[in-house]
Write a structure and sequence with these properties.
Strand order of the largest sheet: 10-9-8-11-13-12
CATH superfamily of the largest domain: P-loop containing nucleotide triphosphate hydrolases
Number of strands: 13
CATH topology of the largest domain: Rossmann fold
Bound molecules: guanosine-5'-triphosphate, magnesium ion, zinc ion
Structural class: alpha/beta
Radius of gyration: 21 Å
Length: about 300
């Protein structure tokens, strides 16, 4: 007997496939490993066809073509990419107002990865019950200006969580961000009874302790799926060229080509239209600062 399903979790050689409301533990047919050029022949989010063996274990026979791929540069190997999940259509970057404090640089890195991976970006600013950082208003305005939704939430009080459910409804969304920002706590809020383990935020470093160790998809009561993911320290950008970076900033696009020098990096050059737009308030300063920091890291 064969069934269709979606891979919700991967454990080494085993995969959990969600099919018609049930989870099936599966192995993978050997030839699939060789057929695929990817280092990850089966990833969370893949739509698969499974045959059920008599012992209740399934065998993944076929992986449908991926509609989207969420990947990052693999650690230490700049030519390799690591697939985090497939077939996601939204990427929700989660940051927190405090504990750990808000670092807008990571948001912009995620927005670039979302654009490359063809996922719609959403920004969730969690822990609003702990107060609001000074930069908040500027962030909300800057991202609204380029049509990226910014949701303010508290997984503790539930504030804003209804709005999150509305944005996630009928989509397949991954929550991603630093450790300790409350990705798992938010998912617990959205799916009553799930009770996933949440971690502490260390007092000494003000960082999370990397509680979630796997990417896992959960079906939402409103339809669609949401993926939890392990907190990341840095998000490596795979194959982003310095010269293309400004192109990932929608608010910079209309000024490109107006600089005095062709190939202007918009950093040290005179008569730079981008720097002029920052001074004139037409490009948010924090976005430009993130641009410079990312450029430096490429
Ligand atoms: N005050 C407050 N605390 C929160 C909120 N959301 C989460 N926390 C707390 O923050 C800590 C970390 O939450 P997690 O949900 O484990 O964070 P995470 O982003 O999943 O972290 P990793 O799995 O390590 O990536 C826990 O102690 C939560 O109770 C919130 O909205 N307000
Ligand atoms: Mg977690
Ligand atoms: Zn320039």
């Amino acid at each position: 007997m064969t069934v269709e399903g979606v891979v919700v979790r991967a454990h080494g050689k085993f995969f959990i496939v969600h099919s018609h409301g049930k989870n099936i533990t599966c192995k993978i047919r050997g030839r699939l490993r060789f057929k695929s050029h990817s280092v990850t022949p089966v990833a969370v989010g893949d739509d698969v066809i499974v045959t059920l063996e008599s012992d209740g274990i399934g065998v993944i026979e076929q992986v449908e073509e991926r509609r989207t791929v969420f990947f990052r540069a693999a650690k230490g190997l700049d030519s390799k990419r690591q697939t985090i999940a497939a077939n996601l259509d939204q990427l929700a970057v989660v940051v927190s107002t405090k504990n750990p404090g808000l670092k807008p640089g990571l948001i912009d890195r995620f927005l670039i990865v979302a654009a490359i991976g063809e996922m719609c970006p959403v920004i969730i600013i969690n822990k609003v019950d702990l107060g609001e950082p000074a930069i908040l208003a500027e962030l909300v305005k800057g991202y609204a200006n380029i049509d990226i939704p910014v949701l303010l939430t508290s997984a503790i009080t539930g504030e804003g969580c209804h709005a999150v459910l509305n944005v996630l409804r009928e989509h397949r969304t991954i929550l991603a961000g630093h450790s300790g920002v409350g990705k798992t706590a938010l998912i617990n809020r959205l799916i009553p009874g799930l009770n996933l383990m949440v971690g502490e935020v260390s007092d000494s470093s003000n960082r999370g302790i990397h509680t979630t160790s796997l990417v896992e998809l959960f079906e939402l009561p409103t339809g669609g799926f949401v993926a939890d993911s392990p907190g990341i320290k840095v998000l490596g950008l795979w194959k982003v060229e310095k010269a293309d970076l400004a192109g990932y900033y929608p608010e910079m696009q209309k000024f490109l080509g107006e600089c005095r020098f062709t190939g202007c990096s918009h950093t040290h050059e005179p008569d730079c239209a981008i720097k002029e737009a920052v001074r004139g308030g037409n490009i948010p300063r924090f976005r430009y600062e993130n641009y410079v920091a990312i450029l430096d890291s490429l």
